[in-house]
Amino acid sequence: MSPALDHTVSFEKYHGTGNDFVVVDGTEPVPYRGAFAEAHCHRETGVADESGAHDRRGADGVLFLALEDRFHPPRIVMTLVQPDGSFAAMCGNGARCAAAWAAARTDASEFMIDTQSGTKRAVVRGKPGGDDSADITVEMGRPTFEPRDVPLAADRDDKLVAEEVKGLEVTAVNTGVPHAVAFVDNVDAVDLDAVAPAVRHADAFPEGANVTLASRDEDGGFSQRTFERGVEGETRSCGTGAVAIVAAAKRLGLVDGDDLIRVSPPGGDLEITVPDGGSATLRGPVEAEYGGRLAARPEQ
């Protein structure tokens, strides 16, 4: 094998409430980032912990991160490549993992994260390592329901709020990426893999949409399940989806005010605020799992 094909790059594996990512320094030479993500994120043949301490293969995406610590606070340039090789403009849990990765390399506890959907501020409490997790809050920007921002089909000039799309009553909102949010009686009673793809590919969403289900819990929070565009399946957690739930709930009058709302995807609890006049926030734990080296140009 030629030296170019045999080249490997260092990586670390992080997860935020089960939403897991391969993290690679953005300065590492990876010639085809899409192919890299397709190979190493695969749930059956992708990245694995050689120690056996973590038995889940693959990942929900690859975070290519460039740390620019000459700024105060330090900046992180974040590029997320999904398992299908596509690029995502924003990922809430990915941004929280990016902040944890940077915190392990600096003495800073605050970072500015440059994403394709704008710059997000993150605050880190603690540093992940061993059995510890970091508590990280990231500002997510203001959710928008505007048709051009979601985006919705070009011939539509009104918001999509509590309308039926392919069998689900959904509300469309962009929280960095588009979400079709449906409130149901019990998220666990829905066959997500059966109902979500039709909505994800509906004509109403020319760029596709993540499909997020929510049901109200007894304590006033929400249970969550999300079928992610680019992953093309359910993930254990979706930060933009959690924010989308609270934004849609406010739009529909299910919650009001600026209070913190708990949203619980399968991977754990997240805390969300969607203020009337400011940026939404996403808070939750991040853990570092393991690291190693991966082929920079995996065989196709």
**Which CATH-level-2 architecture of the largest domain?**
Roll
Would you identify the CATH H-level superfamily of the largest domain?
Diaminopimelate Epimerase, Chain A, domain 1
Number of helices: 5
User: So what's the overall shape?
Assistant: globular
Order of helices and strands: HEEHEEEHEEEEEEHEEEHEEE
Could you name the ranges where pLDDT drops below 50 across 5 or more consecutive residues? 1-5
Q: If you average the pLDDT, what whole number results?
A: 93
Number of strands: 17
This entry's quaternary arrangement is single chain
Query: Distance between termini?
Result: 14 Å
Rg from Cα: 19 Å
Structural class based on helices, strands and sheet pairing: alpha+beta
CATH class of the largest domain: Alpha Beta
Domain count: the total is 2
Give the strand line-up of the largest sheet: 1-2-3-4-6-7-8-17
What fraction, in percent, of the residue positions are helical? 10-25%
Q: What is the fold-level CATH name, i.e. the topology of the largest domain? A: Diaminopimelate Epimerase, Chain A, domain 1
Sheet with the most strands?
8 strands, mixed, barrel
The proportion of residues in beta strands is 35-45%
